[in-house]
Amino acid sequence: MIKTWLTGTCLCASVLFTGCAVTPSTSSTDSTTKTAVTSSSSANASTANALLDRNWTATEINGFQISTQVANKPSLKFDSKTQRFSGTDGCNRMMGSFKADAESLQLGAAASTKMMCLNTDQNISVQYQQALTNVSRYRASPEHLILMDQSGRIVMALDASK
């Protein structure tokens, strides 16, 4: 009896949680952003293009250099087709959505694995995840990516992976 009740309760809960998915709205803010991106100069377009479809490896997080001896460095990739980012904090993989225009970068909620990694610096992982939550602006070239917070403070520096 209890087993049947638990099964039914779990099934109902999963249906309810699935129904709570958020769908993006097509508000006037979105159309304004699209207009701004469309009318941006070719220099700004090349900056946005430099961000996309490259593998980026973190070299600095919140002012602290990441040692070249770190085996698994944090990394990021922004996929232009799916508008999703993916990467690793040096141990766990993470992924989420993003919106970018010529200078601003908004990262959506990230999903992450939660593995126990014995051979990684947990401080780097924590700093990396915290830095990503503060990102709102960026500068990109084909070789370097700088992620900044709202005030323009650099929260992370990354180099294009070779």
UniProtKB/TrEMBL annotation:
Domain DUF306 residue range list:
50-156
Keyword line: Signal
Write one Pfam family the protein is assigned to.
META
Q: Does the keyword Nucleus apply?
A: no
Q: Which residues form the signal peptide?
A: 1-21
Source domain of life: Bacteria
Q: Cross-referenced InterPro entries, in alphabetical order? A: DUF306_Meta_HslJ, HslJ-like_sf, Hsp_HslJ-like
Protein name as annotated: META domain-containing protein
Which species expresses this protein natively?
Answer: Acinetobacter soli
